[in-house]
Design brief:
With 242 residues, the protein is mainly α. It has eleven helices and two strands. The longest helix has 15 residues.
Length: 242
């Protein structure tokens, strides 16, 4: 937001301290947040052998995608995000990973573990985007089924009310794939309706308490709504030091 972070070097040391001596992290999500945080702070993350071995082992398709858990696609997206941010796309078989993701594509046109959901579609399409594929036009039919005109997006077609995560997932998908939102102004006003008196945002549109996670998704959603040209290709984004 244009403000200098106080004691930035101390924050950087804290983030780097999350990496274990052998180069691994406690989870793929922790690795993602650490590396993304270091990038935001303009700090280097050196890709050493221990980290490379851990990541390539942790992100194998059979580790994430052969699970029937609802979190499988979410974890896979985190892994592909780390692969992208560390410039390791050449170290994985991206075409094979794309074929494996196709197993989660539904006849409804979206992605999911047992049936298509907006969140599952978001994680799958963002994984493809992370892996360098052109996602223009992906899942537009399903996205249109999840769109509530003048309001935003819901997790499944014909469900209401949408929660703040649904808004974020739908808007990101729209901007990444070139989908035209029916009423940007209506969606913006609906998101602002999630705001509480303390300036934070809640999970449900009608009532609820503010927290940082909900506020993050609301602010990011509003930011993506303002984009005129859509999202850049993943290979146009910066990577960490190798």
């Amino acid at each position: 937001m244009g403000q200098e972070i106080p004691r930035k070097e101390q924050v950087i040391r804290y983030l780097k301290g999350a990496q274990r001596r052998d180069g691994s992290f406690s989870s793929i999500e922790v690795a993602r947040y650490v590396i993304e945080g270091l990038q935001e702070l303009g700090a280097d993350f050196t890709v050493e052998r221990g980290f490379r071995d851990w990541l390539l082992s942790s992100s194998r398709h059979d580790f994430w995608l052969k699970s029937e858990s609802e979190i499988a696609l979410e974890l896979f997206e985190a892994a592909t995000s780390v692969i992208r941010m560390t410039g390791m796309l050449e170290d994985v078989d991206v075409d094979r990973l794309r074929r494996d993701l196709a197993a989660f594509e539904s006849e409804e046109g979206g992605y999911g573990i047992k049936r298509a959901t907006l969140s599952g579609t978001y994680y799958a399409v963002r994984s493809l985007w992370n892996l360098g594929f052109d996602v223009t036009g992906e899942c537009h039919d399903f996205l249109s089924k999840c769109e509530i005109m003048g309001v935003g997006f819901s997790e499944r077609p014909m469900t209401y009310p949408p929660v703040i995560y649904d808004m974020y997932h739908g808007i990101w998908l729209a901007r990444a794939t070139g989908y035209s939102i029916a009423s940007v102004e209506g969606v913006r006003n609906f998101i602002l309706g999630f705001m509480n008196g303390n300036g934070g945002f809640r999970y449900f549109p009608e009532m609820g308490i503010s927290n940082l996670e909900n506020t993050y998704y609301a602010v990011e959603s509003l930011k993506f709504l303002e984009m005129k040209d859509g999202l850049p290709r993943a290979d146009e984004l910066p990577v960490t030091t190798r």
